[in-house]
């Protein structure tokens, strides 16, 4: 005869469910960073078929319309929440972030400069202390130093050609992404927030400035192919729409600075994926940079 009573079985099930829910954010985060890292490979391939501004408009439109379409399909709760914060996040995380990355590409920094957007975790740490009053420990300072040194070794901005403008645009992209993430976190802390409603409306706001970029687009010059279409769907639907929903969900459950520091693993994965898919094998200094970033992740996890 089993020694488990119904009460004990219920307790065991509840314990198992709690353990699973505790690990769910980390599992989702692992999938998210993998998807975002591979997006660098996808963007590098699809940018060969379209100009950067054209690529930006298509990618933003696909991602934004997907998010808002999901909100419409739900059929209720369509009225925007926190309209002021929706506009702030939509313009910073979507439009200005995408525009800054595009300007970096237009300036001729189509390769490693885009990875400079992952100065984002350092901006998040600073903005979180100011806007969210999150603690900033000694381990966080050490993590910042190790992570920044590692990122610089991977990106090697001293080897880039084209001056300071592309690097500045890429760093600004990281700042805009960080600002949107911190503002999203602050909005969720101020009371009940419908993540899908918030995401859908901020995505719609990001569409509003796109007509200003139409004179610089070249839709007739797109080299259409199945690979290009699939790549734009990946970047627009999965990396942009699904990725943003997952990021916003994680921001509500994990500290913004910790989440963003651990996102430093993305350029490490991106370098590995580029080596495997595109033959861009890392240099010894890049490998050292990966180790430094790993050290920073360990330090921030122990905060």
UniProtKB/TrEMBL annotation:
Protein name: DMT family transporter
Keyword entries, A-Z: Membrane, Transmembrane, Transmembrane helix
Organism: Vogesella facilis
PANTHER family: EAMA DOMAIN-CONTAINING PROTEIN (PTHR32322:SF2), INNER MEMBRANE TRANSPORTER (PTHR32322)
Subcellular location field: Membrane
Family to which this protein belongs: Belongs to the EamA transporter family.
Membrane topology: Multi-pass membrane protein
Domain of life: Bacteria
């Amino acid at each position: 005869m089993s020694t488990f009573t119904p009460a004990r079985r219920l307790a065991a099930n509840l314990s198992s469910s709690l353990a699973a829910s505790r690990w769910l954010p980390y599992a989702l985060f692992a999938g998210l960073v993998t998807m975002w890292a591979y997006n660098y490979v996808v963007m590098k391939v699809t940018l060969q078929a379209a100009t950067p501004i054209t690529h930006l408009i298509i990618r933003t439109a696909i991602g934004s319309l997907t998010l808002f379409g999901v909100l419409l399909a739900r059929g209720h709760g369509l009225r925007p929440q926190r309209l002021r914060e929706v506009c702030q996040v939509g313009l910073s995380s979507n439009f200005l972030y995408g525009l800054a990355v595009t300007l970096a590409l237009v300036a001729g920094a189509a390769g490693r400069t885009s990875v400079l957007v992952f100065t984002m975790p350092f901006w998040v740490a600073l903005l979180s202390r100011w806007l969210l009053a999150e603690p900033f420990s000694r381990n966080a300072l050490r993590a910042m130093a190790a992570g920044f040194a590692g990122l610089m070794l991977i990106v090697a901005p001293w080897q880039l050609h084209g001056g300071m403008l592309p690097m500045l645009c890429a760093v600004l992209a990281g700042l805009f992404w960080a600002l949107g993430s911190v503002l999203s976190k602050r909005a969720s802390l101020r009371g009940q927030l419908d993540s899908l409603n918030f995401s859908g409306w901020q995505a719609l706001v990001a569409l509003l400035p796109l007509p200003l970029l139409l004179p610089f687009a070249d839709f007739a010059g797109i080299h259409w192919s199945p690979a290009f279409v699939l790549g734009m769907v990946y970047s627009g639907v999965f990396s942009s729409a699904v990725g943003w929903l997952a990021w916003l969900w994680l921001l509500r459950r994990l500290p913004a600075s910790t989440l963003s520091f651990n996102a430093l693993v993305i350029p490490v994965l991106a370098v590995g994926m580029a080596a495997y898919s595109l033959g861009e094998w890392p240099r010894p200094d890049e490998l050292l940079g990966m180790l430094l970033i790993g050290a920073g992740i360990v330090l921030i996890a122990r905060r």
